Amino acid sequence: MLFASSQLTLNPSAWVWILAVALVAVAWFAYWRTTPDLPRSTRLALAALRAAAFVVLALLLLDPRSIRKSDREEAARVVLLVDQSASMSLPASGWSGGESRFDAATDAASTLQKEIESRGATSETIYFSDHAQFEPSEAAKPDKQGTQLARALEDVVRRFEGEHVTGVVAFGDGIDTEASLVRRAPPSMPTWAVGFGDTLAPNDVRVAGVDYSPVVRAPSRAIIAATIAGTGPASKRVRVRLTEGSRTLVDRDTTLAAGSAEATLRMPVKVTEPGRRELVLSVESPGNDQRDDNNRRDIVIEVEKARAKILIVDLTPAWELAFMTALVAHDPAYECELFVSARRTAAPVGRVKRPAEFVSSLQDADAIVLASVSDEFLDAATTSAIKRFVTEKGGGLLVLPGPSSLYESNGGWSRLAEILPVRGSAPMSFTLQYTSLGPGAQAASNPATADLVPLFTQTEWQERAPLLGFYAGIAPTAATEVLLGVRGRSLPALAYASAGKGRVATVAAGPLWRWKFVAESNGVYDELVSRLFDVLTRGEESGRFVLTAKKNVFDAGERPELYAEIFNEKLQPVSGGSVKVEIARADSAGGETPLAQTPMTRESADSPRLTGEVDVLPAGRYVARGSAEVGGKTLESKPLEFRVSTTSVEFQRTEQDRDALARIARRTGGDYVAPADVGSLADKLNLEPRRVPVVSESVLRASVPLFLLLLILLAAEWLLRKRAGMI
Predict the structure, then answer these.
(1) DSSP string, 623-673
(2) DSSP 197
(3) Among 107, 247, 53, which Cα is nearest to 709's?
(4) What is the rounded CA–CA span in Å between residue 387 and residue 374?
(5) Do the domains 308-539 and 542-648 sit in the same CATH topology, yes or no?
(6) Residues 43 and 50: beta-carbon distance below 8 Å
């Protein structure tokens, strides 16, 4: 204790003082005369006891407090950070075995700790890898993945904020595995670094990096650019292999020069079918390879269809089919298959298949167009397949008007009624009269018609090529969006609704191809049909919340990076909304074990894209699922699967990075120290204690002795009154 002072404060309320005087007066007046008449000495004793009790009560009401101020000495604290990442299992010197870097580091930390504590300071040993490990570890091992010293220093600063930490001593090999163009700036806390491991690179070859697109379209070629690196005094002949299962796709040789050398090989892989391609890139150089745990990289490529496939059923084809297939033929985003009868009155463009092949073709289709059909074609098996395609697979369905259409098919209409956005009684009659259309109630909010609303509010262009009629007797269902309506009538000309995972649109007025003959607006047909195809082939609502990963496969020790994009009903990017991403581990049986939630933040102030970083995960398969609150509606992303391989970032570089350790130490006011000089490091550390002001407060109201004194005074008065015969 260096200095102490005390101060007494009282409640200054005037009414307490007035009450205290009044209570003393009442006590004296109560015993001025008594019955029976008591001796004056007894009355004085009773009055004194009651007055004393009232005085104690007044003291409690005054709430006196004793404030004691003092200074105390706080010993200096030094934090010892010991790297326990996997690279610390390598030899402390040379490459041929001996004491590990981790054992040498823990011995050096123990030596320094004893010296610090002998000088009256305190120290605490904390292990770190990609961040500081504050949980106690009785048997720490060098088996962690990822090394980020700057992040660990930030953790220490946050943990010991306000405490007398005079310095940090980091024991490690300096190999930072955070691949970033902009590295973290170390916090402003004096840091000394003690390096372990050989500073000369070993005689080794490794896969330094693999660059490829994680998602490609089929048919195309995936280009894999592999960077092969080598270190050591002699040149090396390296064999590079790219395999898929037991099949070898690429087998090449390359030569690396002596010293530190790199070579990049571009390897094209032909992709023809959608699906997942799992490849392995490996290198070998017999006699020139110190370690073989950095010679392999797993590669996973998701192959998607290049174009959406649309199945068009028009058993008795007319001009609608001709214009629609011509549109698809000129749009690289789509391809179509036609199901028509042998007799054709128009010339459709596309691959023609037999109606019997329709159900089997649904497997790789994205949308269906039903033009002219028949009850025989739309039997129970076919309609059940269509409903499953829409509700379970997330496919789209477009129903067109015309002779022999679904509106005129009693059996087909009744079997598909539960997924249609309109209701009515089939067969229906087509009302022949010139017809113009106008925007419906939801036209401005649906991407199929949002940009066409100004055009459909005009009638002049439609009067030059009006539609020929409509189906009366239909009405929208409760969840239907009416995009276009028949002018002058309460009839949905274009209705749209979701059905399970998919989407369905019905056109009840037509034929739409007549708009092709309006000179100044002849593009409206192509634009409307293209937008309908785009909406219908997108599938379930998850198309509005897209969750992606930086890579499909991350090395052990990497922090997986996720990206999210959210779109509104018009498929425009949205920057607001609450976003949550949950990470789960997937097992071989198809089960999932929830692990954690990953926060997402804006990538930049002017970018609507969100980004999030997942903590280092052990090797295995993982699934990420996102949810976003947008406009009072919850959007769910499709499950995103990624992997963490057994290839560790810890052995991409194995030599001690002395320069990195020295750079961090000197930027914080410390320095680099060799392991042999650890004993003298205590002389460089600030181990002086500091004076810390201490303020303590004693509350008399909470004093037990004062409360007991009040009880004793009241009890003594009661006993004396009883003895005097007053009770």
Answers:
(1) EEEEEEEETTEEEEPPPEEEEEEEEEGGGS--S--HHHHHHHHHHTT--EE
(2) S
(3) 53
(4) 17
(5) no
(6) no
Annotation: CATH topology of 308-539: Rossmann fold (3.40.50)
pLDDT tens digit string along 167-225?
999 999 998 887 654 456 667 789 999 999 999 989 999 999 999 888 888 878 889 99
Phi-psi region at 541: left, alpha or beta (left = phi > 0; alpha = psi -120 to 50): alpha
Nearest by Cα to 192 from 707, 670, 681: 670
Nearest of 41, 67, 64, 54 to residue 709 by alpha carbon: 54
Q: What residue type is assigned to position 389 of the chain?
A: F
Condensed to tens digits (0 to 9), the pLDDT of residues 478-513 reads 889 999 999 989 999 999 998 988 999 999 998 998
Q: How do the domains of the chain map onto residue ranges?
A: 4-71+696-723, 77-94+129-192, 204-305, 308-539, 542-648
Q: How far apart are CA 257 and CA 233, in angstroms?
A: 9
Q: What is the CATH number of domain 204-305?
A: 2.60.40.10
Place domain 542-648 in its CATH homologous superfamily: Immunoglobulins (2.60.40.10)
How far is C-alpha 16 from the chain's CA centre?
61
DSSP state of 202: P
Give the span between the Cα atoms of 84 and 421, in whole angstroms: 62
pTM: 0.67
Rg (CA), the chain: 41
DSSP state of 186: P
Categorise residue 416: left if φ over 0, alpha if ψ from -120 to 50, beta otherwise.
Answer: alpha
Contact 310, 537 (CB under 8 A): yes
- b/e sequence 636-668, b meaning 16+ C-beta within 10 Å: ebeebebbbbebbbbbbbbbbbbebbbbbbeeb
Angle at 259 between CA 253 and CA 261, to 5 degrees: 45
- Cβ contact 434:574 at 8 Å: no
Asked if residues 62 and 11 have their Cβ atoms less than 8 Å apart, the reply is yes
